[in-house]
């Protein structure tokens, strides 16, 4: 009966492969080749180049990583949290034992996020003296993005839901958990030390408490597909409310 697990797995991935709604596709297409109209951070590093990626705010308040030229962001693999040295994470050069919101995660009955199960993304840059250059930091909470809120991720023509689950201590941008990376790019052999380098991944975070799934997420899910699916009710509502590709209006009265 060795074939049974793979049949079950492909069924599950069929169920969770999410189509990109037309308004989200319009958003993706409208912004990919433009310069960010409303940058809210300094330019951080993608890993492929330095000072090439900003946090960009849409008129709706949604925030996304944007290459300063064309493109969005890459996808490096983050293995922080539980089982940081296991499986395809065992070669992660920057693994840490904890994720940034570990104390809040513990309210849901787990001791930390697990990069093998939880689809999470890394947003925010401490740019600390230790990890970056001790220069200007960016905290998504400064523009209303809540810890452990749902982030819509467009990768390889699909949509997956993730959580804002970790913060970069340095200047790097474009990172996701192993679980999300392998769902996005199952054929690229992503591991803790090998990411997706093309700047075609859209990470879209939404402000406010409506983006926080809280107890409706299945924190104790047994698989990445099951966890991702548990974010869909929250995520679908956020994506449905996104205005399609209209030109971003620069918010007045804001530096
Ligand atoms: C969460 O995942 C666990 C493990 O697979 C499962 O037993 C449980 O029924 C799930 N809970 C919900 C609310 O879906």
From TrEMBL:
GO terms for molecular function: chitosanase activity. Residues 1-17 form the signal peptide. Its main location: secreted. It catalyses: Endohydrolysis of beta-(1->4)-linkages between D-glucosamine residues in a partly acetylated chitosan. One of its GO terms (biological process) is polysaccharide catabolic process. This is Endo-chitosanase. Its EC number is 3.2.1.132. Pfam families: Glyco_hydro_75. Chitosanase catalyzing the endo-type cleavage of chitosan, the deacylated form of chitin. Chitosanase may be crucial in the degradation of the deacetylated portion of chitin in the fungal cell wall. Keywords: Carbohydrate metabolism, Glycosidase, Hydrolase, Polysaccharide degradation, Secreted, Signal. Belongs to the glycosyl hydrolase 75 family. InterPro entries: Chitosanase_fungal. It is found in: Secreted. One of its GO terms (cellular component) is extracellular region.
């Amino acid at each position: 009966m060795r074939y049974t697990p793979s049949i079950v797995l492909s069924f599950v991935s069929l169920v969770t492969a999410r189509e990109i709604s037309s308004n989200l596709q319009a958003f993706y297409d409208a912004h990919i080749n433009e310069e960010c109209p409303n940058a809210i951070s300094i330019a951080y590093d993608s890993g492929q180049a330095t000072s090439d990626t900003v946090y960009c705010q849409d008129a709706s308040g949604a925030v996304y990583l944007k290459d300063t030229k064309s493109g969005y962001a890459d996808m490096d693999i983050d293995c922080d949290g539980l089982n940081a040295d296991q499986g395809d994470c065992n070669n992660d050069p920057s693994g840490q034992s904890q994720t940034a919101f570990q104390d809040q995660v513990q309210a849901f009955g787990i001791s930390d996020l697990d990069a093998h199960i939880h689809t999470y993304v890394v947003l925010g840059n401490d740019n600390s003296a230790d990890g970056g250059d001790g220069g200007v930091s960016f905290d998504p909470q400064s523009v209303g993005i809540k810890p452990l809120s749902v982030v819509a991720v467009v990768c390889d023509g699909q949509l997956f839901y993730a959580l804002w689950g970790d913060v970069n201590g340095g200047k790097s941008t474009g990172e996701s958990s192993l679980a999300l990376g392998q769902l996005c790019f199952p054929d690229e052999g992503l591991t803790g030390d090998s990411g997706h380098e093309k700047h075609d991944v859209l990470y879209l975070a939404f402000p406010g408490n409506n983006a926080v799934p809280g107890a409706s997420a299945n924190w104790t899910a047994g698989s990445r597909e099951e966890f991702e699916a548990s974010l869909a009710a929250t995520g679908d509502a956020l994506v449905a409310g996104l205005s399609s590709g209209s030109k971003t209006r620069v918010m007045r009265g804001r530096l």
